[in-house]
């Protein structure tokens, strides 16, 4: 699988979201808590440009003792990318859809060597 250098690890600040074309494939690169996550820019729901969406903390419903919803709050560290076409939400770290395990983003293999970030992209997949 072809390897592409996309920059030094320290060039990507925490919270960064970068869109790029690597080996003819659109890729979204995200840096969270020092880790780098890369996904193909294709939403599994209907093919939208998922990596172009907004990043939000995961929404949590506040449920009282009787099972009634009493508002919302946000998770301190979980971050989701929200597809701009239909609002599908995916965990940036795992690529999993927030509501169902059936949908997930397609990962781009990422390697950090000597402070450099390399992506392994197969344009046929």
Automatic annotation (TrEMBL):
Keyword field contains Iron: yes
GO MF terms, alphabetically ordered: 2 iron, 2 sulfur cluster binding; metal ion binding
Domain Rieske as annotated: residue spans: 4-119
Keyword Glycosyltransferase among record annotations: no
InterPro entries for the chain: Rieske_2Fe-2S (IPR017941), Rieske_2Fe-2S_sf (IPR036922)
Keywords carried by this UniProt record: 2Fe-2S, Iron, Iron-sulfur, Metal-binding
Coiled-coil spans in chain: none
Protein name: (2Fe-2S)-binding protein
């Amino acid at each position: 699988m072809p390897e592409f250098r996309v920059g030094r690890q320290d060039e990507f600040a925490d919270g960064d979201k970068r869109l790029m074309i690597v080996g003819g494939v659109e890729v979204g690169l995200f840096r969270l808590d020092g880790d780098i996550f890369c996904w193909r820019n294709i939403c599994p729901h209907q093919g939208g440009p998922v990596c172009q969406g907004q990043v939000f903390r995961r929404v949590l419903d506040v449920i009282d003792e009787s099972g009634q919803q009493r508002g919302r709050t946000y998770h301190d560290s979980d971050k989701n990318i929200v597809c701009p076409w239909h609002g599908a939400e995916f965990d940036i770290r795992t690529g999993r859809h927030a509501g169902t395990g059936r949908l997930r983003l397609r990962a781009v293999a990422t390697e950090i060597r000597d402070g450099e970030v390399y992506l392994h992209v197969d344009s046929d997949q």
